[in-house]
Amino acid sequence: MIGPEETGIRRRPFMVAAIAVTASAILAICLAASRSAAAGPEATPSPHAIEYLPSISDLMIATIQPRHERLWQAEQDGNWQLAAYELGNLRGAFDRLGRAHPSVHDISFPDMITSVTAQPFKKLNSAIQSKDGTGFAKAYADLTAACNSCHQVLDHSVVEVRVPSRTPASDLNINSSSGK
Length: 180
Fold this sequence. Notes:
Layout: H1 4-38, H2 47-51, H3 56-76, H4 80-100, E1 103-104, E2 107-108, H5 109-129, H6 133-153
Antiparallel strand pairs: 1-2
């Protein structure tokens, strides 16, 4: 027969093993959590991740110019819903441009953008809401002239924006009948 002392001796290796496994699991969880915290959003980004800032020209060509053209094309197609959408996108793109480049030649770029776009944007919005093609054409021409006035002030008069004279080649179907 096995006595109480012999049973305790037999159980001891199992208890030691259970404690060792539990301690190992806790240690693994703590290590994983510390690695996760180090790689989380509070982690300092690499210097290369924060170095790149698109130039004003990059942002104009990549975001402003296409939205300016699509706004015009939407009105040409009578797609007022898309025109409203593109006007909102254009406003947002100008806002992001001003935040990315707060000053140019010691001039507040966001203030400059607002001063030349506020009135044309307001008139464009009104024309779009009332589906007024004539009012839209005037407001669009005013916005285009405002863009060119900024280019002149910033000594980039070689960049002259104009009202499009033809439909640009595009893979975007803006001729949807849902907005007419």
